[in-house]
Amino acid sequence: MCKYCNSVKVIKWGIRSLQDGGKVQTYFCGNCRRKFTVALDEKLSTQQALTEGLIPEAILEQIFIAPDGQIPPLPIENYGQKWPAYNQAQTQEKLLFMELLEDLASLIPENEERRRGRPSPCMRDMLYACVIKVYEGLSYRRAHSDIDIARSRGYLPKTPHYNTISKFLRKPEMAPLLTALVRISAMPLSGFEDTIAVDGSGLSSAFYSRWLDYRFGKNARIRDWLKIHIAVGVKSGIVTAIKVTDGKASDSPQFPALVQETAEGFSVETVCADKGYSSRNNLQVAWDLGIAPFIDFKSSTTGKKLGSIAWRKMFHYYQYNREQFMAVYHQRSNVESAFSSLKRKFNGKLFSKTEAAQVNEALAKILCHNIVVLIHESFENNVPIDIQAAAHKLPLLTTK
Predict the structure, then answer these.
(1) Cβ–Cβ under 8 Å, residues 140 and 163
(2) What mean pLDDT comes out for the span 101-110?
(3) Distance from CA of residue 392 to its chain's centroid?
(4) DSSP secondary structure letters along 87-122
(5) 56: how many CB neighbours lie within 10 A of its CB?
């Protein structure tokens, strides 16, 4: 049994020798993801150590022990996959993506400015073309044919030149439009999600180094990179709110805005985040919104409220109901799954050179991720996708 959360999902992690000649067996808990050690007499077998109480009896009673005294790895839980629905979503994804993106782009108001000379391209059409380019993950020239397919299906009045698409992706005014569309694209799942997870991750430039090089202190040449802070629905992985900051920005200050923006359109009951977000202000912000904050506590923290009732209540719940707390808290891992899915499908690198273009590219990746999630949820869980109805629930843009 785990000494931290009392879970029986424990596996052996190795034996370590001590300076006094003794040995300890290290165990790893599959529930709280922590390691702990148990003193082990090298003259005793594992089976004898278990039966003589050197290892808790719960492990002996609830985990199968092989004849040689070894504890086998924990069985992998199979959550199942609705393969017919999954296959349909995969095979129809691109066509449905173009259709849903057109529904979202139609929410952008028409250009009101009229000037002499050649008319400016419509912002709505250019945003559509920019997102298609990011979805394909190709260069501007190679993505031209896919944008032309969208034009042939009636989603664009004409196929814009690839240089024009590049020019518009560098426009700073694209960022607020993309941010609004990200939030609106999550609204069809507002009745499906009641728990969110918050975290941040880096998107590195494609030219010099990787995000991991900076994070783990490797001796590498560093180029500027951005950090995306997101709130994610734990059931589907839909991004409900996003902030794009400089790569060195802290995670914790972004928490209040992410939770507040999510609460505007979702009936959130619980928010999960790692101990990097553990602060009295963050817990109190969620608490005041009627959301239970399951944020892991640092080892040095105490239950002193210092003006935050939420801090004291959640700290006491953490101390006296550790297993229940961790069971809810570990839904936080779903935000890591969302980042993994995003970076594997749409690449974890930013190929734009200017800062404004990199911000827009990062937001476009998140929008692509949300649309793909909507498509899969519509097949796998029969969630109705009505962009126009969702937009009226969260009127960030002038809707029809």
Answers:
(1) yes
(2) 92
(3) 25
(4) HHHHHHHHHHHHHHHHHHHTTSPPP----SSSPPPP
(5) 18
> What's the rounded mean pLDDT across residues 122-135?
96
pTM (predicted TM-score): 0.78
Q: What would the two tokens of residue 284 be? A: 């109190």
Output the average pLDDT for the chain: 84
Amino acid identity for residue 179 in this structure:
T
Overall average pLDDT of the 319-323 stretch: 88
What's the confidence (pLDDT) of residue 46?
A: 47
Q: Which conformational region is residue 69 in: left (phi greater than 0), alpha (psi within -120 to 50 degrees), or beta?
A: left
CA dist 174 and 124 (Å) reads 10
Phi, psi of 85 (to 5 degrees): -70, -40
- Most confident option among 61-70, 109-118, 265-274, 314-323: 265-274
CA dihedral sign of residues 63, 68, 74, 77: negative
List the Cα angle 25/31/32 in 5-degree steps. Answer: 80
Instruction: Check if the beta carbon of residue 10 is closer than 8 Å to that of residue 28.
Output: yes
pLDDT, mean of residues 130-140: 96
What residue ranges define each of the domains in the chain, with the CATH number in brackets?
A: 1-77 (no CATH), 83-111+121-180+352-393 (no CATH), 193-337 (3.30.420)
**Whole-angstrom Cα distance, residue 320 to residue 83?**
42
Which two three-digit tokens encode residue 129? 């073309």
